[in-house]
Design goal:
Elements lengths: L4 H13 L2 H8 L3 H12 L7 E4 L2 E4 L1 H27 L4 E9 L6 H11 L2 E9 L1 H9 L5 E4 L8 E16 L4 H5 L4 H4 L2 E3 L5 H13 L6 E3 L3 H10 L4 E4 L4 H5 L3 E3 L7 E10 L6 H21 L8
Parallel strand pairs: 3-4, 3-5, 7-8
Antiparallel strand pairs: 1-2, 5-11, 6-9, 6-10, 6-11
Helix pairs in contact: 1-2, 1-3, 1-4, 2-3, 5-12
């Protein structure tokens, strides 16, 4: 056996994603490079690691066993690196965070200085919808989650970061005549929704139901960026987090539509399981947030005050 750590990394990711293409994208390699390394790795075993059925790649039972072993080896290698940094007096380790999709406009600003200060820390950040964020916490796959609505069924601790305000937003091409009749507005202009499981969608549906608005047509899209582009193009209106439309408001590509009882205000919160044993890195990050969050908000998010 003469396999390399590089091959273990590649095969581990192939086993995870079941795709040469996605593996190449994640590891910033070309598809031929991934295929060659997979072949070189396979050549060291007499039993197939993968098989192709149709155009779909599958991992064999033996391949899954090797992938599990590869994961353990790579974790041990990481551990060696972290221990080496610790002996040099550097904070090191991994931090895993799952964030609701619009949290991508928030979390990087609360991470950047911390990560730059502690170069021995590796970060994994999964951007998805609220349902999947909660699921990752239930499975204890992450250290923290960033959400705006606390889960009801999980026992968690939380740290408040900043306000999350949701406004009704439409294309700047909407006329004053279209905006005049607020009661029939949703009946005349299509409503653009996020997918099921999105906290933004849940807030939007609660608001519309409470106000008893009649919605004639709905369009469902699966990301905040897709919703934003659709609004800009004039496909319809949507209730969106202010944090995600800063540039579009400045460029007058979208406009906030004044509506009674809007904006909807929630709080972005960093959340973790009560029963979770936090690593030294996780504890250091919480300490950093408590100490620096007000400075970060003032530095990067003071523009929000203009829309209160």
């Amino acid at each position: 056996m003469n396999y390399t750590l590089h091959q273990l990394v590649i095969f581990s990711e192939i086993a995870n994603s079941k795709s040469i293409t996605r593996t190449a994208e994640k590891l910033h390699l070309t598809q031929p490079a991934v295929s060659i390394q997979l072949k070189n790795f396979q050549d060291q075993f007499s039993i197939p690691l993968t098989e192709i059925v149709g155009r779909q790649l599958f991992i064999t039972d033996f391949g899954n066993e090797i992938a599990l072993a590869a994961k353990k080896i790579l974790e041990e290698v990481d551990s060696i690196n972290y221990k080496s940094n610790a002996y040099k007096g550097e904070l090191s380790g991994k931090i895993k965070i799952s964030i609701a999709s619009t949290g991508k406009y928030v979390m990087p600003f609360f991470l950047s200085d911390f990560m730059n200060k502690h170069m021995g820390i590796d970060l994994t950040m999964d951007v998805t919808n609220k349902t999947k964020v909660i699921r990752s916490m239930e499975k204890n796959e992450v250290d923290f989650a960033l959400i705006s609505v606390l889960p009801k069924k999980l026992k968690v601790k939380s740290l408040e970061l900043m306000k999350n305000q949701l406004f009704l937003v439409g294309s700047s091409k909407l006329t004053q005549e279209q905006l005049a009749n607020k009661q029939d507005f949703f009946a005349n202009v299509p409503l653009i929704l996020r997918e099921e499981g999105s906290a933004t969608r849940a807030a939007m549906e609660t608001y519309i139901s409470k106000k008893n608005f009649h919605v004639k047509k709905k369009i469902e899209l699966t990301s905040n960026e897709a919703v934003k582009q659709a609004v800009m193009a004039g496909l319809g209106i949507s209730i969106m987090p202010l944090i995600g439309i800063k540039n579009e408001l400045n460029e007058k590509d979208v406009q906030i539509i004044p509506m009674e009882e809007l904006p909807i205000s929630t709080l972005w919160q960093v959340v973790w399981l009560k029963s979770k044993k936090l690593t030294p890195v996780a504890k250091a990050f919480l300490d950093y947030l408590e100490l620096e969050k007000e400075n970060i908000i003032k530095k990067h998010f003071s523009w929000i005050d203009a829309y209160h």
